Amino acid sequence: MTTEAPDSPPTVRQVPTERTFHGDTVTDEYSWLADKENPETIAYLEAENAWTAKATAHLEDLRTTLFDEIKRRTLETDLSVPSRRGGYWYYTRTEEGKQYGIQCRTAVRPGETDPPAIDAPDAGVPGEEVLLDGNVLAEGKEFLALGTFDVTPDGTRLAYSTDFAGDERFTLRVKDLTTGEALADEVPSTFYGSAWSADGSTLFYLTVDDAWRPYRVWRHTLGTPASEDVVVYEESDERFWVGVELSRSEKFILIDVHSKVTSEVRVIPSDVPTAEPVVIAPRRQGVEYTVEHHGHRFLILHNDNAEDFALSYTSADAPGDWVELIPHQPGTRLESVDAFHRHVVLSVRTDGLTGLRVLGDGSTDTYDMAFPEPLYSVGLAGNPEYDTTSVRIAYTSMVTPDSVYDVDLVTRQMTLRKQRPVLGGYRPEDYQQFREWAVADDGTKVPISIVARTGVPRDGTAPLVLYGYGSYETSIDPYFSIPRLSLLDRGVVFAIAHVRGGGEMGRRWYEQGKMLAKKNTFTDFVACAQALVKASWTTGDRLVARGGSAGGLLMGAVANLAPEDFAGIVAEVPFVDPLTSILDPSLPLTVIEWEEWGNPLESPEVYAYMKSYSPYENVGKLRYPRILAVTSLNDTRVLYHEPAKWIARLRAVAPDGRYLLKTEMGAGHSGPSGRYDSWKEEAFVNAWVLEVLGRAGA
Fold this sequence. Notes:
Helices cover 18% and strands 33% of the residues. By secondary structure, it is α+β, with helices and mostly antiparallel strands.
């Protein structure tokens, strides 16, 4: 590679390498960029960063303005609504000028049933005990992420784990909350998740294999060296991930083993942590189920002959046959089940909207919670307490800031505990949300959620940002965003394309956007863009597409599929070289991903299909829109070299385009970890978007 002064984009050395699969030979000129230890690779990424800084230097004032707008609208010293567990109220607070949250608790006072009301967040909560201060942990570090934060049932100890690189390899530690001292117990290279035994003497945790797959559950006895820890469960099938948690009832340790399409759950009594795990139901290919303990039974949410899932139960004493509670209802996706002493709450999805259904204990009727807006998102929020007759829910919409309610499950009364403050005089009535429908190539109707400043013209003159994801049955539901207000107030419309591959319209919606139907995700997005133009929301030269991770694959695919429909594309940590990655089982996550994308190593059909849509493989001599790719050097989910190679090939094959690559050199998949750094990153992206849309001076 040779690096020119940042008066022009850097050039990158081409080293053609060939690979042959199923009789097909392809050449990759930039595969050497995958060598993270090569100084030339780092030099190239830094040269790209220098060029991006040079090419966007004129936006510095706008970036500062956007950052200041986010900051001015955010209550920087704030705290979450305290949540009760046992004898304490737990909450997180932030302080002005500090990057990270502070985890705290205060004791429940005699007779206290409601969370303590906090009228002045900067004054704190009476009797506050700081459990973990992220700002202290991050001193001298560029990055901080917590992998687990887990207090013993009796509230005397805290297990927590930290990652200071962004590679999601965590060091597990234990703190004595009665003395404030760190215990000698320490385990490196752990994964997310943990579970305590009933008496707090034993801690279960996870480790990963060389492919970054959590596959072992370990049992650690406090006060003993990590070298004496015992493997409780090891999963040998490389398609499966393992998770571990304590049930809400605190009666069982749950070991969840799951692939993309199959699952199996084992349980250990939390008061007998050395017991052998008991299988609830042996795995059967294609059958997924989750388990929730509820008194004498285990509730089982499953898809056995139930595409959108059904609810059954089995004995907690001797798990065996399943007895049906809620039958399968096509079109109503049962997404999760949460059990409380006298109630069960189902999270459901119907017609593209989330909902909550309450099942009583016989003294109350089954009912669905009602919400006033036509577009919204709702779900349970935490709820660690089992013996309760109220639950906490989180509610938001495109115009309603994040809101926390407590709901009495018997009287059905909803009490607003907090709505996220938006400073500067925000008024929901100044904005409107809409639902449009696009018609895909095969006649499928695809929903689009839209928010705009009230009075934005519907004559095609408004600029628009269209966001999409469309993989893993992940739904991008309507949500509120403070940074988005800076776009809306400049006349930009924001829309979410709920394309197939996500879960917005049920399990079939997901099935129709994966494997050998993956192209539906891309054509749906293009159909949404064209529908917005047809409905006079915008025009193609005023439309920017945005997506990240698997949504970044979507961005790369539509860039090749319909470049003329977009003025710009933002691809964040984009999965733009999927064929190369999925062909390499030594890479993190690859084997697990075969049930999402197919196995191109074994199937010529899958190989040909993936090659036909892979953004990197299909870069052509096209007139591409402007492209901004953002990635992170330490990302273990989508490796940095995918967007690096993509931008290099775009420059070589279609040199008339304007392409930028920005690499965070000390972060992971989610980008910068501190909130101010995240705001700066969002301001950078939105400044670029506004320039592309012709609103940089607005």
